[in-house]
Structure formats: C-alpha cells, structure tokens
Specification:
By secondary structure, the protein is an alpha/beta fold. The protein is 40% helix and 15% strand. It has a single domain (6-248), classed as Glycerol-3-phosphate (1)-acyltransferase, CATH 3.40.1130. A 7-stranded mixed beta sheet has the order 1-7-6-2-5-3-4, sandwiched between helices. The radius of gyration is 18 Å and the shape is globular. The two termini are 32 Å apart.
Length: 265
C-alpha cells in the first residue's frame, strides 16, 4: 500500500476517534435511551462520520420522510451504506453472525438493534426469522441488503428472497432504496466499494483521497401489505432498484465480486 498523505492520516485518526466515541455512546447512553433518542444519536453520529470521510448526503428524497416503520431493502456497495441509511432513516440491520466477534464493531452491533444470521442452519434461519418478525412487529425499521454481497455499484445482482419473509409475516411495508455514490464531476464512483481483496483501511483511504463524494439515496418503490410471496417481492424490489439506477445512468451488468459484505440478507 502506498504511503498515506499526512492530511489523510490525520483524518483517519479522527475517524478512529469517532468510532470510539460511538462505542461510548452505545455503552453509556443506549441502555437508558428510548427509541427516539437512540435514533437521534444514530442519525447524528452517522452524519458526523460521513462528514469526516468527506461524504455529502445529497438532498434527501422527500418520499423517504414518510418511512416510519417496516423493512428497508437496498443495493449494497460498501459498509458506508449502513451509515448513509442511518443518517436518514436510523434502523436495525441484518448481519452475518461472524460480525458479532469483530473488535469494537462487533460489540457495537450486538448492542445496536442488529439481527444476526448464521448461514447453513435451518434452525438458525428460523431463529433469525423470528427475531426479524419481533423487530418489525414492534414498529421499528429493519434494513437488509438482499444481494448478499457488495458490488462496485455498476449494477444490481439478483435479490435473495428469504429475508423478505419477515415483512410478509409482520404485515409491514417494504421500502426499496437505491444507493449511488457520485464523484465531484457528477459521475458514478466505485471509490467506496468494499470489494475484491480490498481491506477496510484501503477502502477508507480510497474514499478520503477523492476529496469529496456525494451519496444519493432514493425511494425506488414501496410495497404495502398484504404483500406477495417472497420470490415475487424480491424480484419486484430488484427490478425497482435496477430501474432507478438505470435512470440515473449508473446501472451496467455488475462484475462478479467476492462476498465482502458484513451486512447481508
């Protein structure tokens, strides 16, 4: 890895300190905070993190303001997607079980409305479904990335339908989000993409080195209960995201990538 410029190194240190401050908030404030306060903390902390990474949230789609509860479904480019969504719509997320063991991030996830899923076990899958049902039925927002992996943002992989079942069983709305990252020239950028053999530090350096990125989140579709079966729902959600990105000129056949995603569906 090339030497990191001093300005970028100092910014990375600030990002690290911000992560530590997030851990303190989760440990000290979340246990005594109500849902509204927790959501406000999530929103503010996520926006501050994006600012430190020189990522600007494009003017929010007004349609997003009406999403009070239900399942959020989005395409997946980067771990930054999580904070971009939380900056607008503080939510719980569905994550791989191994994330729970990550230093600091795993601890924060365990105490931050995360539903963990263990693959390869029907019993574990059933438990995940029940946890999702409980969260959604309580009126909270829960987000999934049903591609099951990250891409360069150059297209949308097929959506897996299994975790749509929670929304069907809870009879809650499904809001489909299209996420795009745009450089200073207004063109799609893959700088935030967490793909191939890139590690977390490299990804952060790529983002900071751009000197400014915009993230655009739009509501591609919304499905209200009663919902169709999960296969049809997954297909319709996929088509909606693909159409939204294609309209913006960001959708091409996606390249094959390793499963780098921490948050999955």
């Amino acid at each position: 890895m090339p030497a990191i410029p001093l300005s970028s190194a100092l910014r990375l240190i600030r990002v690290g300190l911000h992560l530590l401050s997030g851990g303190l908030q989760v440990g000290l404030l979340f246990p005594v905070a109500g849902r509204r306060w927790r959501d406000a903390l999530k929103r503010r902390w996520s926006r501050q993190l994006l600012q430190l990474l020189l990522i600007e949230i494009e003017a929010a789609d007004p349609a997003l303001l009406g999403i009070e509860k239900g399942l959020l479904v989005a395409n997946h480019v980067s771990f930054i997607d999580i904070f971009a969504i939380n900056a607008l719509l503080p939510s719980g997320f569905v994550a791989k079980s191994d994330v729970a063991g990550w230093p600091l991030i795993g601890w924060m996830s365990r105490h931050n409305d995360t539903v963990f899923i263990e693959r390869g076990s029907r019993k574990a899958a059933h438990q995940t479904q029940q946890q999702m049902l409980s969260v959604l039925a309580s009126g909270q927002r829960l987000a999934i990335f049903p591609e099951g992996t990250t891409t360069a943002g150059d297209g949308v992989l097929p959506f897996h339908g299994a975790l749509f079942q929670g929304a069907i069983d809870a009879a809650v709305p499904v809001s489909v989000l299209a996420i795009e990252y745009i450089d200073r020239n207004g063109s799609p950028t893959a700088a935030p993409a967490y793909i191939d053999d890139i590690d977390l530090l490299d990804c952060l350096v790529n983002i900071i080195s751009c000197g400014g990125i915009r993230v655009r989140i739009t509501l591609a579709a919304r499905f209200l209960p009663p919902l169709q079966d999960r296969r049809h729902l997954a297909h319709q959600a996929h088509q909606a995201v693909a159409a939204a990105l294609r309209t913006r000129g960001s959708s091409r056949p996606p390249q094959s990538r390793r499963n780098a995603a921490a948050i999955i569906a």
